[in-house]
Design goal:
By secondary structure, this protein is an all-alpha fold. It folds into two domains: 94 residues, no CATH class; 29 residues. The protein is built from four helices and no strands.
Length: 127
């Protein structure tokens, strides 16, 4: 991938990170609140079922890992538009490096430089 492709990809990832962080914060806050409420109610009613604490710990860890994996996937996968822009950037780089395009662009650049020089002289001339 060329530099422009990486820039396009990183712009998409940075946008996704801000959105993902907000969602992660909301889900984490709701999850922590529910877990705290659950633990409080469990201690108030003194519910001592066998194996219950182990099951809660396993589900908490599994939920945390699932949330982490989903966060990484959601932030690192580029959108369809980003993939199209990256592909266009790659095609553009290949075209500009081809000999056929250089034979057209090089004389065009000389003409453009000459035109800029003439216009600069015309505009800087006293009226």
């Amino acid at each position: 991938m060329n530099k422009l492709s990486w820039l396009i990809y990183l712009m998409q990832v940075s946008e996704n990170l801000s959105i993902g962080a907000m969602i992660f914060l909301i889900i984490g806050t709701v999850g922590a609140t529910l877990a705290g409420l659950f633990c409080f109610l469990n201690s108030v009613f003194d519910d001592k079922r066998e194996g219950w604490d182990t099951w809660v710990q396993i589900m908490t860890r599994a939920g945390a890992w699932i949330l982490l994996v989903l966060f990484i996937v959601a932030t690192m996968l580029p959108s369809r538009q980003t993939l199209t822009l990256i592909a266009a950037s790659e095609i553009g780089e290949k075209l500009t490096n081809s000999d056929g395009v250089k034979s057209v662009v090089d004389p065009g650049l000389d003409l453009l430089k000459a035109w800029i020089r003439r216009e600069t002289e015309r505009l800087s001339a006293p009226k």
